[in-house]
Amino acid sequence: MELHSLTLHALRELIIKKEITAKDAAFAYTRRIGQVEPEVNAFLTLTPNKTIEMAERADKVISGQPEAGQPAPLLGVPLAIKDNMCTEGIKTTCASRMLENFIPPYESTATRKLMDAGYVLLGKTNMDEFAMGSSTENSAFGATKNPWDLSRIPGGSSGGSAAAVAADMCAAALGSDTGGSIRQPAACCGVVGLKPTYGRVSRYGLVAFASSLDQIGPITKDVEDCAIMMNVIGGHDPLDSTSADVALPDFTANLKDGIKGLRVGIPREYFPGYLNLPQDWKQALRLGERSYFVSPGIDKEVFAAIMEAVNALQSLGAEIKEISLPHTGHAVATYYILATSEASSNLARYDGVKYGYRAKEHEDLLDMYKRTRSEGFGPEVKRRIMLGTYALSSGYYEAYYKKAQQVRTLIKRDFDDAFKDVDIIITPTSPTPAFKLGEKTADPLQMYLSDIFTISVNLAGIPGLSLPCGMTGSNLPVGMQILGRHWGEETVLRAAYAYEQATDWHTRKPGM
Ligand code: GLN
Prior knowledge:
Bound molecules: glutamine
Structural class: alpha/beta
Number of strands: 11
Distance between the termini: 15 Å
Strand order of the largest sheet: 1-3-2-4-6-5-10-11-9-7-8
Shape: globular
Number of helices: 16
Oligomer: single chain
């Protein structure tokens, strides 16, 4: 097997045992990037000098290390970072003209922790502008292509990170997730992605989109890698007032303990028409082939793959239960009021005064603001700023923003109630496999609807993981979403690991 196709944990083994150097690993990835990046466009910035420098530093640490010493968890491991996390001295653009030349004077906490763990930076990955989108087509610097089918989207907004992992251009990557931006691209690209509990990973140095929903998380080749990354990036950070002071467990400790007796919930609202769970899964599968049986918008092959996966969980000893999330139907509307409101406030700072783009020509200060913002932001970002400004304006605030906050509480309560009866919840990650580039760009509402299974998770603040659970007839990956209680990542990862090890979906790779 080639070095670039190894999992993070396999690669780390080789480096620690000194069978290869960190520099070997770095070269393997830079070579691979040279081969496939021209077709995929997963990166906005490559940092070859930094890569070599960090690999050499790792090698120095390794050669000076006593054999019995405990090596740093990511020593010499090459990773990619979504371009909305500040990296000191390295361009951080958010895929926006507004920040095209922005070089942060400080490091985000998540990437600082990766540094302390010995990682090697390969580059910064493509995304939807300011993380607003589900396809990476909103990047000001050109879309990323799905490595499984270059005519399709990789998902978004962390599409560059997911595509880079899927195409073996890095050992793992960081993404951010406000409404599904780690999980949906992970599903589209056939890799693992985890949005942690809100407050688990520091947001310090993450360029803000919607601060009450944003979380940083890993995108990896398998579940064990995901647990290793979580051990590094999680934990309380005094620099982020919303980071929670909750003990960080070792996510690898109970990973392999199995799921005998685990109670698994299937939300009735996500599969309308499918009653009498969990009596007969095979029956569901057969009926799922009939379109009237499947929730409008859920692809039949996605539905079938999820039902098969639920069967597999049952065979592993899990107990399947039907649950209800009654406010599901309001999630998309609630999210698009709250996320746009927060975005309109967060993005007010891009006024051309202190940093970022400034319009060349302008008559006075007001004109400078106007031109800077109309030239610097792309169409989706402008749409969101306008929606959010409207929802927050006097007279509408009560009707929209306040109402959406109330519904958010109801959605969170749905999950609290459900988790009284079950330990995890299973849903599809995305209603469809990766769609064609350009297919939904003209219809924002269609694009927003692809978040249907992921956004309520951010509204509730709970953890959600996507992992591969099937392939469609046209060879596109399907993702299953596993949800857990607040701070319940350990259980989510354990269930994901058990399923992953019982199947071989995670071993498939796009033929690039
Ligand atoms: N697709 C969703 C949106 O456009 C979620 C994006 C995200 O999670 N950053 O808002």
